Amino acid sequence: MNDPMTLRERIAAALKDAMKSREADRLSTLRLINAAIKDKDIAFRGEGGEGTVGDAEILAILGRMVKQRLESVRAYEEGGRLELAEKEQAEIKVIEGFLPRQLSAAEVEAALAKAIAEVGASSIRDMGKVMAALKAKYTGQMDFAAVGSKLKDTLA
């Protein structure tokens, strides 16, 4: 991925593109993404940070947005509101366009084993170090909640 554009720039370019091609649904999703990023920028400055949040934090925001929409899809499907579920699915596709490829189960296992070895984790007390190492390398590429429970089983 030798793309010199930051994630923020890619989102801004996609927003302009959607405006020019009059893609209303895509445009509204991109505006939601931008709003979430701006909210995080404001919170970041309120915490004493300077400037804006980086790509890693933007990936985390996008990951949360996908997770929220997956929950909404499930709720809408259970409630028989298929048109709303489809709208959420369309938003997920737009958001996922900015996320890196998700790791396969085998790749997650390998990354977990490598992180445990790198950190020298031997007990449950080392879980935080391993998770920090994974988050530093694989933000947006794996579900850390699922990885956390696997890690707990491995270290227990």
Walk me through what this model shows.
This protein has helices at about 5-20, 25-45, 55-80, 80-95, 105-120, 125-140, 145-155. It is an all-alpha fold. It is globular, with a radius of gyration of 18 Å.
Please summarize what this structure is.
The protein is mainly α and 156 residues long. The protein has helices at residues 7-20, 24-46, 55-78, 82-96, 105-119, 127-138, 144-155.
Number of separate helices: 7
The secondary structure category is mainly alpha
Count of discrete structural domains: 2
Mean pLDDT: 88
Strand coverage percent = under 5%
Helix percent reads: over 70%
Q: What are the salient characteristics of this protein?
A:
Arc Repressor Mutant, subunit A; 2 domains; Hypothetical Protein Yqey, Chain: A, domain1; 156 residues; single chain; mainly alpha; 7 helices
List the helices and strands and how they pair.
Layout: H1 7-20, H2 24-46, H3 55-78, H4 82-96, H5 105-119, H6 127-138, H7 144-155
Helix pairs in contact: 1-2, 2-3, 2-4, 3-4, 5-6, 6-7
